[in-house]
Design brief:
Order of helices and strands: HHHHHHHHHHHHH
Number of domains: 1
CATH architecture: Up-down Bundle
Number of helices: 13
Low-confidence stretches: none
Shape: globular
Helix content: 55-70%
Mean pLDDT: 92
């Protein structure tokens, strides 16, 4: 019988007294002790971990969206494109998480649902920040965070900045397209309203992509992200209906009906509308 393989013989580090280990670097003690079960139901662990990992992916999405926006504003489109591609893949990962959660049946969910109290994914401040950062700005959605001054300050700070889509439209103007001053000087706190001149500018980009290649690629990166984002919302609706039917959400929303309304929201409306007239 051969001896068991010992990685130390090939130089692997095996002693970590006073040295940084994998667990140390990733703060795994804090992460793996954050699953506080409120009931004895077996599937509560699945529910908590699915939502915690989703928040971690959203943390990365915000990191990438913020950097992409900064690079676009600084004229570094190529660097922004890599980050926007990554954001789309992050939402692909978030979509896959619903497949795991859908293994939980309605009977299993009811065993711990009361333990959630009034908590709901509707209250995710990071999800709200993503919406605000890319351009879906609804001031009514600040209210669920009013009990946390620190979160309100972060969200208000985001509302004071041009969104990712605002920056993209400003690039159109910078390239010589006729973008109305009312669009460029709009109240950044308000929701984006589709504009015919903006749509015409994007349409011109699509008519002649070779001349406007960076804007053309930017448009497709934005559409790619929204495509995955829409799928995430659709999977959310389907999962909720599969698990709780048409019950009200724990946070007081109408549940499936509320989520279906969110499916109608367009992040970059002109980029979708132009396809019909192109």
């Amino acid at each position: 019988m051969t001896d068991a393989y010992d990685p130390a013989r090939d130089g692997a580090q095996m002693a970590f007294d006073g040295r940084m280990s994998y667990t140390d670097y990733l703060s795994l003690d804090a992460i793996l002790s954050a699953q506080t079960l409120r009931t004895t139901a077996h599937d509560e662990m699945l529910f908590i971990i699915q939502h915690q990992t989703s928040e971690l992916w959203m943390r990365l999405a915000l990191h990438e969206i913020g950097a992409a926006r900064d690079h676009l504003a600084a004229g570094k489109a190529r660097m922004a494109f890599k980050m926007l591609t990554r954001v789309a893949r992050i939402f692909e990962q978030l979509n896959g998480a619903w497949d795991v959660l859908r293994t939980m049946t309605p009977s299993e969910y009811t065993r711990f649902r009361e333990g959630l109290g009034q908590s709901s994914g509707f209250q995710s401040w990071q999800y709200r920040m993503i919406e605000f950062a890319v351009g879906n700005r609804n001031l009514a959605m600040l209210r669920p965070h009013a009990h946390r001054p620190d979160l309100m300050a972060a969200l208000e700070s985001e509302l004071a900045r041009p969104s990712l889509y605002d920056v993209a439209v400003r690039l159109l103007a910078g390239a010589g397209f006729d973008i109305p001053g009312s669009v460029l000087r709009r109240d950044l706190r308000q929701p984006w309203v589709a504009d015919a001149a903006v749509e015409e500018a994007w349409r011109a980009v699509y008519r002649d992509p070779e001349t406007h290649w960076e804007l053309y690629e930017l448009a497709e990166k934005l559409v790619d992200f929204e495509d995955y984002f829409r799928r995430w919302r659709f999977n959310h609706v389907t999962t909720v209906e599969r698990v709780i039917g048409f019950k009200r959400g724990t946070g007081g929303t109408s549940g499936v009906q509320y989520l279906r309304r969110m499916l109608e929201v367009e992040l970059f409306p002109e980029l979708w509308h132009l396809r019909t007239a192109l």
